[in-house]
Structure formats: structure tokens, C-alpha cells
Amino acid sequence: MSQPKIGIHNNLPQFVLLVVANLFVGSMVGIERTVLPLLGEEQFGLASTSAALSFIISFGFSKAIINYFAGGIADKYGRKKVLVVGWVVGLFVPVLIIFAHAWWVIVLANVLLGINQGLAWSMTVNMKIDLSKANQRGTAVGLNEFAGYSGVAIMAAVSGYVASTYSLRPEPFYIGLAIGVIGLLLALIVKDTEGHLKVQMAESREEKNSLSAKRVFFKTTWQDRNLSTASFAGMATNLKDGMAWGLFPLYFTTVGLSVTQIGTVVAIYPAAWGIFQLFTGAFSDKVGRKKLIIYGMWLQAAALWFILAVESYPLWIAGAVLLGIGTAMVYPTLQAAISDVAAPGWRASSMGVYRFWRDAGYAFGAILAGVIADFMGVAWAIGLVALMPFIAGLLARFRLEETLKNEDEK
């Protein structure tokens, strides 16, 4: 049997299939983006913002924990098995939401959604990196995130339209059932990348191609300045996104937008995030990771403050676009930076630790935003949360080294 070849072009059919697969992974989240915050208030009568955002907290923590273990499990048992399990779990999410009689069932559904996303999204990105050359990692991650957040955007808009045409529940979640079935079928079709990973490990000049889970956690969390700075930037990015997920529908309701208009603004943000990752990931392969990370973090903060400062629908759309561009600048670039530093043998584990901290940001953002909103109002919560990506940009400016190396440096 011939040795697998590394490179996107050498594995194009498999790579494209993984891109399509992640479109459906993102679509599972997109179903909820517009509908669930409104569902908490209108159908379950949740008056407290903190209570209404509890579904994001459960999603964020479950996804973060699963991300941490998914990398190690994938390194041990293979990517495809983990991907299939992720989709089996995902099938239960829309069913629970459709038949939920109490808010705790919605919270439970989002625990399962976090597991689905932690397993399925992690595997699609790791499998693409397995197939790619070192100087294609930004491109690979960019395409993966483009597909995923395009799915988020499309379904955020579709679910908003369906909810305004019919009702908040159950109609939007019938679409979720179809997404789950298609996602599972794609997971069964895709081939594992174990052979490609072995080739990369053999070619790696890293002395230690394997590290213990404890050592990888310490290196990625604080011991390695590049890995730890990237992890904090990822957490700040998703802390901002957890806030936006929960508070944007509530904020735009208070300024008088309709459900359809809210769905449009909520969808445009991840749409810009997804589309621009087509370019930012590949751009980081050419110009490096550091500048995109610094200015992307600062643009996220500036976009949130801009949204609070303006008072018209077109300008809110513009703010959502800017927020998406800022997020697109850092999202694939941070993951590419992690894969630059980590050796192939512990790369998925390190990526798992990074994604643990990054996606814990969803929960931290929902907690922080909910508490501030309850005591000071939604606008104050948005403005104060924006400080986190700004601070992360400062840390990247002074602590992060350029991780992209020339071929002759590797």
C-alpha cells in the first residue's frame, strides 16, 4: 500500500468532503442563534438575563470539556470514530428542544450540543490539518471555519425567518433533525486521516513527538508563551461571542427591531466571520500569524463599541460585519499558530486544550454578560465585555512571537 501524500491538492476530494461536513456542524448551532434567547423569554417566561443565558453556559462548558478530551481520544483511537460519535449525540438536540416542557430540558439539549460541537468540529479541523502541509495550515483552518460559520449564519437567518413565519418552536428545529441525519451520513462516508498523521510524525524534526496529557495542558495553558497567549486570545474571542449570542437578540429587541431584522443582524455577524476566513487563514500563511491576531482582537472590541454608539439598522449591520471581520482575522490564525508550535504527535491534544479554553469563553461570556445585564443593563454588558478582546490584543502585541516559520527553518 502506497504512503499517503501530504497536501491539500493531493487530498482534494477528502478535503472538500470535510469542508462540507463542517458546514452541517455549524448549522446545528445556527438553528439556535436567533430563536433560543427569545424562546426563553416568550415561552418559558424567564425574566432574569442570567437565567435566559443558562443554555449558553451549559453549551460552553460541555463543549470546552469535550474539546479537552477529544484531542487525546482522537490521538489514541482515530479521528473518524470521534466524528461519528459526535453526530450520534447531535441527533438528540433538536428532539429535546421540540418536546421540552421545562427550561432545564433546553439546558440539557445544549449540553448535548456542546458535546456534538466539541467532537465533530474538533475532528473536522484536525483532519484537515492532517491532510495539509505546514504552510497550508492557515488555509485549511480558514476553509474549515468558513464552512462552519457559514452554516451558523445561514441557519441563524433561516431559523429567524421560519420563527417569524410560523412560531419559535417547533418548526425551526425540524430543520435541525434533517441537519443531524445528513451530518451523520457525511461522518460515515469520510475516510480517517491516521495514515497522513503517521507520515507527518515521521517527517517531524521535533525530538518529543509524544507528551503526556498533563504536560500538554501545562504547556498550552501557561508554560509556552505562544500557546498560552493564543489560548487566552481564543477565550476572549468566544467570551465576546457568548455575550453576542445571548444579548444581541435582547438588545436589538429593546431598540425596536423585528424578529426578522434581528435574525438578519445576528446572521450577518457569523456570515462575515465565515466568509472572510476564506482569506484570513490563507493570508496568515503568507504574512504570519501575529499581526492578524493583534489587530483582529482590537477590531472585535471596536466593533462592539461601534454597535452601541450608533442608532440605525444599516449601521448595526455595518457593526455586525466589522465584528465578523475581526473574529475572522483571529479564528483560523490562532488555530494555525497552535499547529505551528505543537508537534504532530501531541498537536490534536494541544489543539484540544486550546479549544477547551477558547470554548470555555462561551460560558464565561454568558455568565459575565448575564450578571452585568441584570445589574447594569444589556448595553453596559456589551460594552464591558468588549474590554476582554482589547486586553487579549495587548497581550498578543507584547507576548506572542511569530509562529510561522520558513521552510528552511523547520
From TrEMBL:
Keywords: Cell membrane, Membrane, Transmembrane, Transmembrane helix, Transport
Domain Major facilitator superfamily (MFS) profile: start-end pairs: 14-404
Membrane disposition: Multi-pass membrane protein
CDD domains, sorted: MFS_MdtG_SLC18_like (cd17325)
UniProt keyword annotation of Transmembrane helix present: yes
Membrane-traversing stretches: 12-31, 51-70, 82-100, 106-125, 146-166, 172-190, 292-310, 316-334, 378-396
Superkingdom of origin: Bacteria
Keyword match Cell membrane: yes
SUPFAM superfamilies, per the entry: MFS general substrate transporter (SSF103473)
Gene3D superfamilies documented for this protein: MFS general substrate transporter like domains
Localization per record: Cell membrane
Pfam families: MFS_1
Primary location group: membrane
Name by which UniProt lists this protein: MFS family permease
